[in-house]
Structure formats: structure tokens, C-alpha cells
Write a structure and sequence with these properties.
39% helix, globular, binds thiamine diphosphate, single chain, Rossmann fold
Length: 273
Amino acid sequence: MNTSLEELKKISKLIREDIIVTGRDCEVGVHLGGNLTLAEIMAVLFFSVANVDPENPDWEARDRIILSKGHGNLALSSAMARRGFFPLEELQHFDTFNSMLSMHIDKHRMPGVEISSGSLGHGLSIAVGAALGGKMDAAGWNVYCIISDGELNEGSTWEAILSAGHFKLDNLTVILDRNMFTIEGATEDNLSLEPLGDKFRAFKWHLIEVDGHDLEALLNAFEENTPDGKPKMIIANTIKGRGLPSVEGKASSHFYRISKEDAEEALAMLKSS
Ligand SMILES: Cc1ncc(C[n+]2csc(CCOP(=O)(O)OP(=O)(O)O)c2C)c(N)n1
């Protein structure tokens, strides 16, 4: 899909707005921190990079988008609604009884979604299986999988990373939401991950590191070819809770209900950006 940078900027701002408004209106609160990291990534994926058809969500030749960090469903839901997979009004019912949109992803309710997720550490293994299947069938589609840095604390994720390098899955692109925090605090305090770039290279991946809020950098990263059949790892450096001054860059942004006043402030900042 051909979408200009200017248009992508507008879309990513709309996704941010949806997250803040839903976060304000959802009684129990939402995962604000780790959804606000995804706005630009979702805009670029759904409106430029991935070959998907909202009119025909199960189209065989579609690219497969797998959000492994299922608590990012609000950003995903906003992007998919704005792309036309379902009406935008659905967001008003986010996480209410019988809604198609829940705190974590339910593939049986949401059209165009590949997997249910929310139990962390499974999505990349499924993405690797899909990419391997695509290769075996000589299918032309690609797999895009978004993982969190918290999921790198799970062994299953590393098994998948090992497999993708071994099987030369150059039809697989992973976007790592590297916001440096999990629910418990800083990743480097809990179970340190660095040097991540060296680790992915050693596992035979093509590594690209970008500012995950920079639309142009993300677009370039997706477009870059990978050498020698390597799968692509995009480390997207993001800021947890981006756009919410009181919690930006803090673990406390992870899950809460934003106050009306803070939402007003965040929306005003967004408007003037
Ligand atoms: C298997 C599993 N264990 C624990 C949880 C509870 N949980 C929800 S979010 C989260 C961690 C959040 O950190 P991260 O995965 O890095 O997400 P992000 O910072 O990108 O929001 C945890 C442990 C879970 N969803 N799944």
C-alpha cells in the first residue's frame, strides 16, 4: 500500500489518540505503556509494508502479522480499525463483555488476526512455523512478528530465534519493541539482555537497529534486503509510555487508568506535535 510519510504521521497520531482515549474510558485501565510504544510500528506495518486486505482478511496470499506481545492489542485494534478491518466504534467497547476487542488478542473474535496471544513467549515460535511453512510451499508472502523485550526472558523465544537463523527464514521479519522495561522494572536489572545486537548476529540474523518512533527509519528498515537468506531482526528502540509526561520511560506506565486531566494534557501535546 502506498502511503506517504505525511499520511503515516497522521495515522500514527490517530492510533496514539485512540490509545489515550480508550485508556481514559476503560474502567479497569489498559496497558498504556506498551501500547504507546507501538503506534508508529503499527502505522507503518498496516498502512505501508504488509500486504493485507481488510475486505478479505483470510486471503491466502496475505502477509501474516503476528503480535506476540498480546497485551498490545489496543494499538493493534486501533490500526486494524483504521485500516478498515472492523468499525472504529468497536474501540468504544474495548474489553467489555462480548466485545471482539479484549485486553489480550482473541483470534476467534477479531477478523484478520492470525493468533490469540497474551501469554507471552509463544508468538515467535508460531511465526517461525508460519515462515517455514511459507518457504516449503514456495509461497510469496512474508511474516511480520512483533515481540517485547520481556519475551526475551523466555527460553521458547530463543529456540525460535535459533531455528529461524538455521532455516534461513528470510521471509520473516521480527520487530523487537525494545522499551527497556517489563512489568517488573528495567530489563537490565531483572535479567540482563545486552548486548542484544551481538546475540542476534550470532544466531545468524540480519540486524537493524532504529528509533521505533521514527516512521522513515522504520520504513527503511522494513525495505532493507537481508543477505544470505537471513531472517531480519529490527530492534525498535522505543519509549514506554511515550507521550504521557508523568510516566514516560517508567515501568509504572505499564498498566493503569489514565486520569481525565492527564489524558487532556496528552491529547493536547499530540495535537500540537
Ligand atoms: C507467560 C506470561 N507470563 C507473565 C505474564 C504477565 N505479564 C503481562 S505483561 C508482562 C511483561 C511486560 O513486559 P514486556 O513483555 O517487555 O512488555 P512491554 O514492556 O513491551 O509492554 C508480564 C510479565 C504474561 N502475560 N504471560
